[in-house]
Amino acid sequence: MYPISEMRMGPLKSEEPSNWDSNLDCYCYRKLSAEEVDIKMQGRATEAILFASADLGIAPPAVVWLRPSAPVDAASALGRTAYNWADECHAEFARVRVRIPAGYTPWPEKLREVWILSEVSRFPALEFVAVHEVRHVWQKAKDISLFGDVCRAEGDAYPYSYGALRRYLMAKGHLTQELELEIATLRESACRAYAQAWPNGKFATLEN
Ligand SMILES: [Zn+2]
Question: Among 10-14, 55-59, 100-104, 145-149, which stretch is predicted with the lowest mean pLDDT?
């Protein structure tokens, strides 16, 4: 998931977050152990991932939970070399080029994972992130060039995940009018932000 409302590499100088490594132009994260993450959140994410995986006809990916990390801690594990997507395979730390707004699907093909920030606990934001990232896992397996093209990847993943979230909540008997309205509103604002970032892009779910 890319923060489509702020499509730029790195933060503005005036708002550098504490996990931004300004020497390497990367954001730093630590991968958490299962004991560090609320058990109910783990259950909610797993359920949403199972739903989206079945929906897309793929094996469910593993979840890795993340927390922003101080650049110095990430550097002690990963070194001070320039960004390399192979760093995403490290067991404990990760450095990535974009701010992770809520979730992320790592680049290396051998990592069949979705990454979720442990601070994303709100219902149904956590469920949304889970199904969104599963869509990226599906893209990665179907067509790596689609996955690698942010404009196409997000143009597909956002509309897919709002639709899938709605169907998921309905299947669970949790879809209220308020939630339906919230999802529709978020979809509209994502659509507008997307059109600004990629005026020629297509905000529509691809055929499976
Ligand atoms: Zn995405």
Answer: 10-14
Residue 203 included in any domain: no
Distance 138 CA to ligand 1 centre (A): 12
Overall domain count for the chain: 1
| CA 116/CA 136 separation, integer angstroms | 13
User: Is 29 part of a structural domain of the chain?
Assistant: yes
Residue 150 lies in a domain: yes
Other Cβ atoms less than 10 A from the Cβ of 141: the count is: 15
- Ligand 1 (ion): residues with CB under 5 Å are 1, 157
> What global pTM score does this model have?
0.94
Residue 152 lies in a domain: yes
Spacing, Cα 198 to ligand 1 middle (Å) = 14
Tell me: pLDDT of 141 over 80. yes
Confidence check: pLDDT of 4 > 80: no
Residues facing 67 on adjacent strands: 30
For ligand 1, the distance from its centroid to the CA atom of residue 158, given in whole angstroms, is: 7
